[in-house]
Amino acid sequence: MDVKRIAVLPGDGIGPEVVKVAVAVLKAVAERCRLHLEFHEALVGGAAYDATGHPLPPETLALCQSSDAVLFGAVGGPKYDNLEPPEIRPERGGLLPLRKKLNLFANLRPARLYPALASASSLKPELVAKGLDILVVRELLGGIYFGQPKGRSDDGRRAVDTSAYEVSEIERIAHVAFQAAKRRGKRVCSVDKANVLETSRLWREVVARVAESYPDVELTDMLVDNCAMQLVRNPAQFDVVLTENMFGDILSDEAAMLTGSLGMLASASLSSSGPGLYEPVHGSAPDITGQNKANPLAAILSAALLLRYSLNHEDAAAMIERAVDVVLQAGYRTADIATAGQSAIGTCAMGQSVIEKLGAV
Ligand code: NAD
């Protein structure tokens, strides 16, 4: 029997509330699709700091490293924001080192606007009437955030950051984008600043070479300034957007906000061979913690990505995504996505509705 191990790291704030619902959905899908999933829970973030004095205890890391995938909630909160030294704060000492230790070089952020939620978008209705479905694939471990030299001059009057990319770093992220595009709209738009930056010129060359292995996927190149504009002018033109670390940081937030709500946004971070990490984009939302108000759909959609990218189970992933679609079309809303006149349901009821609609279409 092929059993897949999933490390479950609920974290802080609404993390445990939404992860509990996402695990319930995964269990329901596993039963329908005859998947054998094992769930093992561990502490991370503030919860781990309270219990052990460290936001990423060694046993949590070991569990993640020995699992097929990691389902992560959120970490942080006012109680921990000013802990000293900063290395013991939940994000800096918990999430960031976990990403690094797992060598998660690819960050995938789907920006999907469900037609039923078109009014939540910041764009004009006619631009998003048919919904949106963009996947931003961002390189996560290279570029200007990590290049050396980096720092301030002794007199403090000059600062330097270095953007650097190796061919191998570009190749591996490009393969992720092309493989993702094969499962979707079969188009990759590679975003760079090749008119100015040497790293971008290399990026463009390498991506073009990788594209030759994917003849069924169409590749276009776009300058990052144009892409920022096109995302608000005509976002429906994009399928997969492939880009480097800093451009991806900015563009993925821009694309995400086209869809309206933080409570709907899922993400996947992948390595070459080890476990991927799946988490909602939102934080621990201390303002609504413990009130059964959190929207669990971002966590549920992250679970769908886990099935797709780490367990290679497209049918099960699509089953969850369709159920979310059906639930939204049927008018179910948590408070964050309800518009005037719509009554809101709680976290648990939303999870239950998704479970009930699995396999509905
Ligand atoms: P946040 O995402 O937690 O919340 C921003 C706003 O969105 C809040 O009003 C919140 O109630 C709302 N919101 C977020 N998720 C929601 C959901 N699922 N359903 C309904 N409403 C939702 O961001 P913040 O307030 O800037 O940060 C709070 C804490 O979370 C901080 O300690 C921050 O460091 C941490 N944080 C963690 C992560 C992570 O773990 N990856 C990411 C971002 C922020």
Q: What would you note in describing this structure?
A:
The protein folds into two domains: 1-109 and 264-361, Isopropylmalate Dehydrogenase (3-Layer(aba) Sandwich); 122-258, Isopropylmalate Dehydrogenase (3-Layer(aba) Sandwich). Helix content is 40%, strand content 20%. The chain is built from twelve helices and twelve strands. It has helices spanning 15-33, 46-52, 58-65, 90-101, 125-128, 167-182, 198-211, 224-233, 245-258, 297-310, 314-329, 347-357; strands at 3-11, 36-41, 69-74, 106-113, 132-139, 147-152, 159-162, 187-192, 218-223, 240-243, 266-270, 276-280. A ten-stranded mixed sheet has the order 2-1-3-12-11-4-5-10-8-9, with helices on both faces. Strands 6-7 form a two-stranded antiparallel sheet. The radius of gyration is 20 Å and the shape is globular. Bound molecules: nicotinamide-adenine-dinucleotide. Nicotinamide-adenine-dinucleotide (NAD) binds at residues 14, 18, 74-77, 81, 91, 95, 262-263, 279, 282-288, 294-295, 298, 336.
